Amino acid sequence: MGRHNYIMDQEHKDKISKSCKGVSKRRERRVSNELIFETAKRFKTTGEWRVGDLSTYRVAKRWGIFEEATAHMVPRKKVVKIKKIKKAETEEGKLKIKEKREKALEYYESRRKTIEERKNFIIGKIQNYEEELIKVQEDLDIILDKINVK
Predict the structure, then answer these.
(1) How many domains are there within the chain?
(2) What is d(CA 145, CA 10) in angstroms, rounded to the nearest whole number?
(3) Which segments of the chain have a pLDDT < 70?
(4) Cα(114)–Cα(116) distance, rounded to whole angstroms?
(5) CB-based contacts of 63: which residues, under 8 Å, 6+ apart?
(6) Are the C-beta atoms of residues 45 and 73 closer than 8 Å to each other?
């Protein structure tokens, strides 16, 4: 019988699982719940917490106390919206928005003019080619008439 083909008795399995659980708990208990909550209170969003102190962030997720620890935090999307609204509410923000709109309108107007000019240029070229083609066709007709007369 090979060394991997034996069946472990339940007592041996319990010993192994207890020893493994003990090691991981000892390693994790370097951080306490209080420390996690104190650390979390220093941050406004979960993203800031993750960047600021990744170890307590991960432990909180692992222990299942993440929701409790982040209850005081504002969701990231709301923070961005609030900042945008506050920025837009100020007079300076309103002026910047107005300037950006005006610049955008100027840009699109110039692009429209450029496209219109290119379109007219191409149409002019096509008309010139059509006129030249008509002249060539007339010259060919004259040459063919001379050949048929002789």
Answers:
(1) 1
(2) 111
(3) 1-31, 75-89, 150
(4) 5
(5) 28, 33, 36
(6) yes
Q: In this structure, is residue 23 part of a structural domain?
A: yes
In a domain, 100, yes or no: no
> Which residue type, as a one-letter code, is found at position 99?
E
To the nearest 10°, report the CA torsion of 45, 50, 51, 55: 140
Q: Note if the pTM is more than 0.85.
A: no
Packed helices 33-41 and 54-63: angle between N→C axes, nearest 10 degrees? 130
Burial class (CB in 10 A: 0-12, 13-18, 19+), 65: middle
Q: What is the pLDDT of residue 88?
A: 62
Cα–Cα distance list, 22 to 15, 17, 100 (Å): 11, 9, 61
Q: pLDDT at position 28, please?
A: 47
Residue 77 resides in a domain: yes
Give, in degrees to the nearest 5, the angle at Cα 116 between 114 and 118: 70
Identify the domain containing residue 63 by its residue range. 10-89
From the list 74, 64, 38, the residue with the least C-alpha distance to 53 is 38
Dihedral (C-alpha) 25, 27, 29, 32: value to the nearest 10 degrees? -140
Q: Which two tokens stand for residue 57?
A: 């962030």
